[in-house]
From TrEMBL:
Molecular function GO labels: ABC-type transporter activity; ATP binding; ATP hydrolysis activity; lipid transporter activity
Highest taxon above the source species: Eukaryota
Keyword ATP-binding: yes
Descriptive protein name: ABC transporter domain-containing protein
Keyword Isomerase carried by entry: no
A GO-annotated cellular component: membrane
Listed CDD domains: ABC_subfamily_A
Phylogenetic placement of the source organism: Eukaryota, Metazoa, Chordata, Craniata, Vertebrata
Gene source species: Balaenoptera musculus
Domain annotation ABC transporter: ranges: 23-244
A UniProt-annotated Pfam family: ABC_tran
Keywords assigned by UniProt, alphabetized: ATP-binding, Nucleotide-binding, Repeat, Transport
InterPro entries reported in the protein's UniProt record: AAA+_ATPase, ABC_transporter-like_ATP-bd, ABC_transporter-like_CS, ABCA, P-loop_NTPase
Amino acid sequence: GPQPVHSRGMGSREAPPGLIPGVSIRSLKKRFPGNPQPALHGLSLDFYQGLITAFLGHNGAGKTTMLSILSGLFPPTAGSACVLGHDVRSNMAAIQPHLGVCPQYSVLFDMLTVDEHVWFCGWLKGLSAAADVGLVPKRHAQTRHLSGGMQQKLSVAIAFVGGSQVVILDEPTAGVDHASRRDIRELLLKYHDDRTLILSTHHLDEAELLGDHVAVVAGGRLCCCGSPLFLRRHLGSRYYLTLVKGPPALATSKKVRAGADLRPLALKALASPDGHDSWCPSARRVTLT
């Protein structure tokens, strides 16, 4: 099987000791027809059982493409992806009974009730999951009558039904209110212990709050991965300053006052180990004028 990925080079990687990867990808590439820029550039990464791995990156970084490959929606152009030891190219039928997916966009049936969705995906486990995210009062409501936040909570609950060993959640808290976000987070923390849970997000605070392991991706490439503490220790300790000289100030008086000939300066502070803010999870900018 795939060998564990350990720390090496500028990528700053940390492999948790003694844990078994539930999902392993190696040199994964994806190129879509008509697009000269590959969506994935040789991505290699392990997702471990019993951990929530937060897959962090901006829109267009390749998060949804990778999760779609793991879900069996389309094959990779090159490389390998294994879920519970089965290759997604050749043995997706063996993966699907153990896989739960919450896609980025709703795939619910408008005319089915919450109960019917839960039953459809696995009656006993689904009822428990629906209760955990506060959907029991709406169990007989058709999903077309649910708010966006409640629909998203149902989608997350469905991903856990039937004892899914691998759960993939593509930005599960996007566009929901604070209360729904809290319910979803509590569900993830409650049920992640015996599962390989992959959560994509573009919110740094969410990745740090929920992720036992955080993988940062930019432009289809893995930039760094490890625990939040590991990433802060390796990537959040250096600052680069850029001073930009502004236009000369207009003289308002023949008398030169103290400081009147100073030029305005724009100050930018960027936290990055070697100037690449796109792969530093603690990158932040400050502008002073």
